[in-house]
């Protein structure tokens, strides 16, 4: 089985951009077992609407090729940006052709970084923050720290240094994504 993860981040229009390779390496280090690397495809999609469109494109393509999720699992990972998760999932599925909608498990295939990926970084680096997913704009929270030191471009570097157990304790959405990868034999 091949597992493809369409994620928010990187630069979709410039697939060879160094930031894309940085994200791929960071996600691989964080989530993959060494023997699984050939079966994982981390797809940088840029912004939020691109993630939705690219995820749908891969699901439709899988269907057109006569494959199922037993052959090719396609997951989405994007920022929730303060929106209701159930509504975001419904929006993604609603825009799929009707004959494909039943192939998508809203809970197993569509995952979120609540509110943003930076909530994971806060959970990892700031133990006093017990609910980083409750911070409205975690990226701004990090940028506003005395001395600065954080910019969105640094996300892949911060991602490589995450302790999965620490973040799982504080970020239920991260924990669910990690568990899903475990169900697929990756993590």
Overview of this structure, please?
With 187 residues, the protein is α/β, with parallel strands linked by helices. Helices cover 47% and strands 12% of the residues. The chain contains ten helices and four strands; from the N terminus they run βαβαβαααβααααα. It has helices at 18-31, 48-64, 85-94, 98-101, 106-109, 118-125, 138-143, 155-160, 164-170, 172-183, and strands at 2-7, 40-44, 72-79, 110-113. A four-stranded parallel beta sheet has the order 2-1-3-4, sandwiched between helices. Strand 1, helix 1 (18-31) and strand 2 form a beta-alpha-beta unit. Helix 6 packs across helix 9 and helix 9 (164-170) crosses helix 10 (172-183). The longest helix has 17 residues, at 48-64. The chain is globular and about 55 Å long. The model has no long low-confidence stretch (mean pLDDT 89).
Average pLDDT for all residues: 89
Structural class: alpha/beta
**Residue share in helices?**
40-55%
Radius of gyration from the alpha-carbon trace, in angstroms: 16 Å
